[in-house]
Amino acid sequence: MTTSVTANLGRDAVAGLVSAxxxxxxxxxxxxxxxxxxxxxxxxxxxxxxxxxxxxxxxxPILVAYGLxxxxxxxxxxxxxxxxxxxxxxxxxxxxxTIALVxxxxxxxxxxxxxxxxxxxxxxxxxxxxxxxxQLVNDPYFWNSLGNMVFYVLSVLVQYAIAFxxxxxxxxxxxxxxxxxxxxxxxxxxxxxxxxxxxxxxxLEYRFGPGTRLLRALGWDNPSLLTSPWLAKTTIAAxxxxxWIPFMMILLLAGLQAMPKEVQEAxxxxxxxxxxxxxQVTFPLMLPVSVTTIVLRIxxxxxxxxxxxxxxxxxxxxxxxxxxxxxxxxxxxxxxxGYGTMVAEVYLIVIIVFVALLLWSxxxxxxxxx
Amino acid sequence: xxxxxxxRFVTNRRNVLKGAAAVSALAATGGISxxxxxxxxxxxxxxxxxxxxxxxxxxxxxxxDWQKVxxxxxxxxKENVKEGEFKGVxxxxxxxxxxxxxxxxxxxxxxxxxxxxxxxxxxxxxxQADYNARLQQSIATNxxxxxxxEMGAPFEGDVCGKGLASEMPDWVKKQIDMDDYVxxxxxxxxxxxxxxxxxxxxxxxxxxxxxxxxxxxxxLAEEWKKAGGAGEWGVPxxxxxxxxxxxxxxxxxxxxxxxxxYLDPCKGWGGFGFYFLGSRATAYAKHPDDKAFLFDPDTMKxxxxxxxxxxxxxxxxxxxxxxxxxxxxxxxxxxxxxxFLAGTGTMLSWWGDIGSNVNTNDSSVIQGKTAFxxxxxxxxxxxxxxxxxxxxxxxxxxxxxxxxxxxxIYVMARVDSDPVRQKAAWSLAAHLGGxxxxxxxxxxxxxxxxxxxSHFDIPEWVAAGYDEKFIKSYLDSEANSxxxxxxxxxxxxxxxxxxxxxAEDELAKIYAGQATAQAGADAIAAAWxxxxxxxxxxxxxxxxxxxxxx
Lengths: 370, 550
Description:
Distance between the termini of chain B: 61 Å
Shape of chain B: globular
Strand order of the largest sheet of chain A: 1-2
Strand content of chain A: under 5%
Structural class of chain A: mainly alpha
Number of strands of chain B: 16
Largest interface: A-B, 36 and 46 residues
Order of helices and strands of chain A: HHHHHEEHHHHHHHHHHH
Shape of chain A: globular
Number of strands of chain A: 2
Largest sheet of chain A: 2 strands, antiparallel
Helix content of chain B: 40-55%
Strand order of the largest sheet of chain B: 2-1-3-15-6
Oligomer: heterodimer
Strand content of chain B: 5-15%
Radius of gyration of chain B: 24 Å
Largest sheet of chain B: 5 strands, mixed
């Protein structure tokens, strides 16, 4: 068993093989690079604040300096720790990359969220405290889109039921099973943007679309699917389902295939009907996979934007708007970076809290049914 | 078919067409005396020849056609640039790729220029709805990554006002013959602090496109009379008449096709959709005694919630039940290209693209059934100063909407440090904004409409194959809009599309029945006030006044 104590002992032992002089030079490299980076960051920050008269024209050189610092850190670690330094190379670049592209932007975004930053403003970015947050609290567009998200998230349950049905079919001994497995997976391979154009803008086009023509032939005089609020919302949810049901189906199918056949056979021997076998045996055994599938799908669903932006632009009258498509408009059409970032950060927190609660409640549910 | 065989085939076909066009041009412009060779005659021949590529009613132009036109119009470039002079220069061009024109077309038009000068061009293609955001981000983050940009005058405040554009050299002014521009595109448009930055390649106004067959139909005229319609059945001249005709046409048929009246785009289009409400509103809101119609020029207080604008919004709400069932999800691209050109709807406000596409776009089914006019007027006009509705002694108030003031080609200041690069960028822009090439762009699907005085020479268009009545109607609608004394000219102020984009969201709510016209307009006004505060009220007032010439 490896513990942190034994790992430290191992590292110390390896470090012991490195000469003191080499360790010293490794430390020196790291410290020198860190000082250079710190000086450059402080210089650029002071220049940006108007305190220092000199600095770079943009922050790009600082990004380059960060990259070079990362290289120096890796080299310094190798010099300082020897074998352990080499091993750290497996992880360290990825960590530095994550810091640069995930952690730093998230925290920098938090700062942006508290600024008044409109790209067309003559005065540039200015700190404005909680003003963006208060604006968000009173913004009917935000609450409308959040309300729509409840509908879209609930639609995941319908998608789950359909996906489960398809998974059961594909798990059965049917003709052309392999073909159908691939065919049913195809919509998932398509970009939602392509789907929204092919289906939302072409097949469902009111005048010439084959989809609407079929609906007319079936007796629907005015098959305008995207102009009344609930119908538009349902149409968007259906297109979204078309893309994502295969994803849920494949996860559920994997679960079904991993299920021991003996249990179902035992149920049959005991006289259970097909329906009873499903409800009493298959469904309960599939609960862990089902919960994972639904949670993953909800996380994806909370980011729904592409189909909405392409097909309805959030209309009619905001009926299909999602939080992400609303943020998209704030950024793209209004260049309102400060407020848009506040909405994005608040939504991130909402998602984190919601998913945490979802995981907690499903974990409790699973424990009760174990 | 092999490419070289295709090219030979196309070239042969073109030679025949060129010959035919040249003969037509000769016939139209003076018979035997035209055989005398003069520079003016040579230019006239050239214009006739390019207008015959591919020829009206001969299908949509292809890349081979664009390349040919670009090659034939290279004369002006050759006068100022030596062959291979820009070898090694690489320029980046940012523009649109809407409806498969703009940048797509420019690639073909610039092929010969690039081959001759030696310069290479890389392209940044943008969808219309993405244009504003891309430009604003480049400006705000100081990441201008293009040398030449296709841009509308409303953005001049953002670009020229911040010193990001290169000043036009004198040789370019001479090459493109700026005096030929229609009056409203002359300074102050294209200039900032007295310096010229823009080569116009388009002149924008919304005109009124209508189906002449519908308004000439005797059966409908009879039904109109039976229904108690005011006056004779005919082309509406005021918005009041447009609304009445729209409501009347609901449920009527012509040649077995369902008829609809006016087409309102209700779905946002990255801010560009707001222009279409503007076209309905200017007759109500733009008083001949007042240059402003969108904001109060002294305070930047929005006028969008005044009785004039609210009336225009209410008109849309009242007409929507009579419009096609999918209208709430129709953006301007839908109303123009999927509806009107495809035969749905009788009346439409749009840029000049509709007129240049009726006979040259493969998807158009309304050839011979379309005519044009300036935007309808109104029996009364709101006077913002007195707060009353005025009836003018001269009759209805007309106020054509100069929406977007046309696309232009701008060179960015980043090329100024290198004289060769700067000359190359301006030469490229001058080629695209040249006098002859612009005639071709105005006549065929390009995204651009007529904008030079020389574009309004009707015999040139007739020689190219246009029906005289049709083209006169089209060109008159454009020229009369440009030259109208009460034209509503868009403010060239920073962030103008932010105002429009916010308005689109609120308008969508009103059209969907979630808010009244007045409540929605008040919400737009409040949002506009917030934007003005954010962008700096004093600066906006200063620029707004300057753009109105106050």
